[in-house]
Q: What sequence folds into this?
């Protein structure tokens, strides 16, 4: 009887999601997870937006839909057309899903350094994947420029241009930002996340700044090898890119148009070393049951650092961009961790998770 009552009470506490219209209707409205153990340990209130719950598995589903909707609204693509993008992963996966759901062809140019899992997944989703040599953005053979050129060479095709098409940041301004504001009841002292295109940080940051009247602090979180922290800290000096990180999908060598829409309002930036990100990744798996990619772990480290700056009891939100599934052969492999000099930083009680 008691267990039946408990079960009924649990059922009642769920709010029922409405039936949604196709794959794209399932994008967004993700939970905001209170990271309980971490918050209790640190004395802050840390929240992670569960973007891995998007139907294509990452925060980039929102951008993919936003970019395609933008092209449709402007009449740039007609039924049966082709969507072309240069991407190393999650945006391509989001686009491939949205293209299937809306009847478009999808062509993805990607650097030939990417994992076979990602190439396979894109092909399973019906995308025409074109791996090209991994060369710098300044080189005309860079995957982005090749994507643009190809889109221009065929009829009824668009290059979605995730880095410099601000429909990307706008998608977060009208969905991710408002969701976080509502979920926290507007009681949010800080927000931080890392950037690839800058769409998430710019869109969410702009919305939270506007709603809070500038009170919510917005900080950029950067991996090693990115130029953005030094750009922000130096008041706008762009250094040459050097170094690398185990995190995928984040870090930049230039100020994209998406980031440019918000960069003057960013309050500060941190660079988070890989050692801290990987330990957080394992800790959150152990204590919160979260299985997340390395950019998400970096974001959570930054959220704690921002909370430290903002003071006792402060409330900070960040983004859990995707799950570890796309990276598990690396992040949970002893050999791979050792090759990056990271095996030793995992505390002994967490080493059991490195099972590959
Ligand atoms: N994390 C992961 C795993 C990603 O793939 C990306 C996008 N490349 C980001 C974070 C950063 O998102 P944005 O492009 O909105 O800056």
A:
């Amino acid at each position: 009887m008691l267990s039946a009552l408990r079960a009924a009470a649990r059922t009642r506490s769920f709010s029922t999601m409405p039936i949604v219209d196709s794959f794209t209707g399932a994008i967004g409205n993700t939970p905001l997870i209170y990271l309980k153990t971490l918050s209790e340990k640190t004395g802050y209130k840390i929240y992670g937006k569960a973007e891995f719950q998007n139907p294509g598995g990452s925060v980039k589903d929102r951008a993919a839909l936003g970019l395609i909707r933008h092209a449709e609204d402007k009449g740039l693509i007609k039924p049966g057309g082709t969507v072309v993008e240069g991407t190393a992963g999650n945006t391509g996966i989001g686009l491939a899903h949205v293209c299937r759901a809306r009847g478009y062809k999808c062509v993805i140019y990607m650097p030939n350094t990417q994992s076979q899992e990602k190439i396979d997944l894109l092909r399973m989703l019906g995308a025409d994947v074109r791996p090209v040599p991994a060369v710098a953005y300044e080189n005309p053979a860079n995957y982005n420029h090749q994507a643009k050129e190809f889109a221009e060479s065929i009829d009824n095709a668009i290059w979605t241009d995730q880095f410099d098409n601000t429909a990307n940041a706008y998608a977060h301004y009208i969905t991710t930002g408002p969701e976080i504001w509502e979920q926290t009841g507007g009681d949010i002292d800080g927000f931080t996340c890392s950037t690839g295109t800058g769409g998430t940080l710019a869109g969410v940051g702009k919305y939270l700044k506007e709603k809070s009247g500038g009170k919510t602090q917005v900080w950029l979180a950067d991996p090693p090898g990115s130029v953005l922290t030094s750009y922000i800290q130096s008041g706008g000096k762009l250094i040459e890119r050097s170094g690398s990180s185990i995190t995928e999908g984040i870090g930049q060598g230039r100020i994209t148009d998406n980031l440019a829409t918000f960069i003057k309002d960013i309050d500060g930036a941190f660079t988070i070393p890989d050692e801290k990100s990987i330990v957080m990744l394992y800790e959150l798996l152990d204590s919160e049951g979260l299985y997340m990619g390395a950019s998400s772990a970096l974001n959570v480290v930054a959220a704690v650092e921002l909370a430290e700056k903002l003071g006792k009891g402060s409330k900070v939100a960040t983004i859990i961009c995707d799950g570890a599934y796309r990276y598990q052969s690396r992040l949970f492999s002893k050999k791979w961790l050792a090759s990056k000099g990271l095996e030793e930083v995992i505390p002994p009680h967490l080493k059991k998770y490195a099972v590959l």
Observations:
- Residues 294-310 form the longest helix (17 residues).
- Residues 58-60, 89-90, 194-200, 248-250, 293, 295, 321-322 surround 4'-deoxy-4'-aminopyridoxal-5'-phosphate (CB under 6 Å).
- The mean pLDDT is 94.
- The chain is about 40% helix and 15% strand.
